[in-house]
Amino acid sequence: MKKIILSFFFFNFLFGQNFEIKDKLTKEAIPFVDIVYYKNNEKIKFSYSDIDGNFSIEDKNFDFFTINVLGYKERKIDFLPKEKIIFLEQDTILLKEIVISNIKNTENIGLVYEPKIIEMSGFSGFEECLYIKNPYNYKKKVKAILFKGKYKSKSDVFIRLNFYNRQDESIFPGKELLNINLIFNLKNLKRKNTFQIDVSEYDVLIPKEGFFVGIEYVGDKKSYGENIEIKIEHNATQLDTFTFCRNKYKLKDWIELNSTFRGMNIKKIDNKILNISLGVEVYE
Fold it and tell me: At a CB cut-off of 8 Å and minimum separation 6, what does 209 contact?
């Protein structure tokens, strides 16, 4: 009987442990880190850390897990770490300095001001990204990202902003273009009925071939991946551009957003393409 009791308490102690992820250099917490669990070298589970870098391990049904976030080197951890604080090393990439002087005028490109067709609810782990064409013959610096939506949550709600290139000979999102973990609180972004994310300090450039802008819903302050109350506007256009989406919790790759609505009777779409209402403000 004593052995059974001891085993029970040992199991709960071992598989209900909390951990914290911090920057090895600054010792600061790293928010909303991707944590992927593997079994027989296959992905079986996904989760985020919270805004303070905390996460918990509830069961032992995995062989190892990886910790990955933009701006840091990925760590692979076999089974359970002995340390309660897991440190990540910065993955430094030297960027060319871009200087813009006396430029005040901007213009918008993309689909942020297209008429709304539907609103879609967002949830933690879900990401949408829109392909933005570059109508110029040269690179343009981005001042802000704009998208339409609303949320009713009383708590802080966070998103991650991602930039991807376009895969060679494909319409799908490719590699990340910016090696920075850009987390934003929606409460600080609202401007009338449009969210505005100022990225002027990060030297984001639109390549000549265009790029994808992704909005990843990571949750509220202590969500650990729970659903969040947010609705994002979507439009229907005949333009040659596409929105892709993925659900990190289901460990799925990118799929075209339009394909998820085939067979559904959504008025005003007809033969048009369903896209997220998102745009880019660039310096002239």
Answer: 134, 165, 166
